[in-house]
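Deliverable D5.2: sample structural annotation.
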Amino acid sequence: MTLWLITDVDVEFDSLRFDQGFFSKNKSLNKAIRRHNPGLIEGVPKLLEFFNKYDINATFHIQEQEDPAFSVLFNHPKVYDLVEDYNQEISLHVHMKEADYCSRKKEISAGFDRQKKQGYKVSSFRAGSYFINENTVKVLEELGVDYDCSPIKNFVVGSMRFYDIPDSPYHPNYADVTRIGNAEVLIIPVTNSRLGIAIHEDNDFELELMKKGVQALYSASEKIEQPVIIYFTTHSWKLFNPNGSEREWEARRRRGFFRFLKDHDVTSLSVCEAGSLWKEKGYESYFLDLPDLVGSYRSIYNPLRHFRLVKHVLSRIYTLKYRLLGEP
């Protein structure tokens, strides 16, 4: 029985939480939003101190875009210094709507090259909105990025359904990244979204749900020889309300979750550490039979309560709509 804990943070401009500003043509709006970034200015240091206190090896996926206006390196270079000071992993995080190869090559390469020129050896990647496709994999391989941790198991984003991906790291198919194949990039998916191992809202049941998710993975690890991954992912801005005040409930829940993990025999690894060890040991991909914990906390009228309906019907309708509209 082996449990790995992967912890990562999407370090991005706070404007992305409002779904505005990033693609806005209003330059004054963009400038104002970039200036007010408690997630970058205060959130990153707080998370670094927190992970240090709990002896957590974390990965910080830092946003870099072709447009320097949305480059953390250009606008908040101290973020990189802080992550390095705490000996945490620096990764690349890129937001883009276009799904075609040329657009992805241009945007991802711009961020990668900018980090490389500053001396950062980046081996892992997180796509904005968790949207990865076959073109993303091709670009990452061309750049020499070894690990991607974009897909979330049992989650749908745009035209991509991540319901049938393994519950473990896997090499994707070049024609369909949701299937196992022979690509060199190793995808390390985020733990099953139906387990609720995340902090989303100020709901009292969330910590209980997160603990049950860990227990489900703990039970699953007793039945297989390969490591089972507990994946905790968050954003730098999640520590704050939109007005900049701190979310006390988020901090309280995060503390409760990591205190709970101390009672379990887990090995904390960065994305690169986990990926390298997975390949070194020659572990094979696998699928787990895990419970639908999120559904049990939803109203009977909420579609999320009905997992089979969402997986087999609603998710397909959702992705078909995006394909018909020509969007990712």
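Annotation notes: Residues 20-24 have pLDDT under 50 and may be disordered. The CA atoms of residues 44 and 79 lie 7 Å apart.
The annotation will be released with the project's public dataset once the embargo ends.
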